[in-house]
Structure formats: C-alpha cells, structure tokens
C-alpha cells in the first residue's frame, strides 16, 4: 500500500471518529497531509491524535458553516474563502509542521484563482 493510499484511508475514517469535523487551514487547500504527515482540522475541542502514518492536529473552532463542503461521511472541508482566511493566522511552527501556508504559497494560490476565474472570481 502506498503512503497516499494509506493517508486517504485514514482520512476516510476521520468523519466517523469525529462527526462534523472540518478539514481546515493548509489541509483545506492542499487536500493531503503535509510532508511530515500532519493533517489540520477544526472541531469542538483541541487535541493531537497520532494514528498510524498520520497525525491529526485538531484545533477548537467554529463548526462547518454554510458554504463549507462535505468531503466524506462526517468530514467537511473549509470553503476556499474560509481556508484562505485561516491561512492568514500566525503559526509558531515553520514549514510542513505549520498549519498555515507561507505568504508566497498563498500569493501563488491567489494568482491561480485570478488566472482561472479572473478578478471577479477572486472577489
């Protein structure tokens, strides 16, 4: 089994373990664990959960709102606007351990949105 297949299977059970949990921050934009196997989520409480091959970094925060998307059973993902705002938060950890993308990575995402959807799509 490849690392990606294993990670996907783990993601598939997260909604069953934590119904209504939200894939957030960089994970909501990348849709995969970081290079260091971290996944960032928002739920009703904070907790770090080590599963085989993946670490769930759960932060306490607002539940899914109108516009957030159902990803798999019980697991939602932040809508693009919410995910971009989440990624503007400060993080004490740099690189792949950070829950947020770097400013250059965010700028690249915004440029992609403009090139695909135009200025109207960005607004």
Structure description:
This protein is of the alpha/beta class and about 120 residues long. It has one domain. Helix content is about 40%, strand content about 25%. The chain is built from four helices and six strands; from the N terminus they run αβαβββββαα. It has a six-stranded mixed β-sheet. The longest helix is centred in the last third of the chain and has 20 residues. The mean pLDDT is about 90.
How many separate helices? 4
**Going across the major beta sheet, what is the strand order?**
3-4-2-1-6-5
Largest sheet: 6 strands, mixed
Q: Would you tell me the structural class of the helices and strands?
A: alpha/beta
Indicate the overall shape.
globular
- The total number of structural domains is 1
Query: Which percent bin holds the helix content?
Result: 25-40%
The span between the termini is 42 Å
Uncertain spans, ≥5 residues at pLDDT below 50? none
What is the number of strand segments? 6
Order of helices and strands: HEHEEEEEHH
Strand content: 15-25%
In round numbers, the mean pLDDT is 89
Indicate the radius of gyration in whole angstroms.
14 Å
């Amino acid at each position: 089994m490849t690392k990606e297949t294993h990670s996907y299977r783990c993601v598939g059970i997260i909604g069953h373990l934590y119904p209504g949990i939200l894939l957030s921050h960089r994970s909501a934009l990348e849709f995969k664990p970081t290079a260091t196997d971290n996944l960032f989520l928002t739920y009703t409480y904070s907790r770090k959960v080590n599963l085989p091959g993946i670490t769930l970094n759960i932060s306490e925060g607002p539940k899914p709102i109108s516009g957030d998307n159902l990803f798999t059973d019980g697991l939602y993902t932040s809508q693009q606007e919410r995910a971009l705002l989440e990624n503007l938060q400060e993080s004490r950890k740099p690189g792949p351990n950070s829950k947020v993308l770097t400013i250059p990575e965010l700028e690249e995402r915004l440029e992609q949105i403009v090139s695909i959807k135009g200025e109207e799509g960005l607004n």
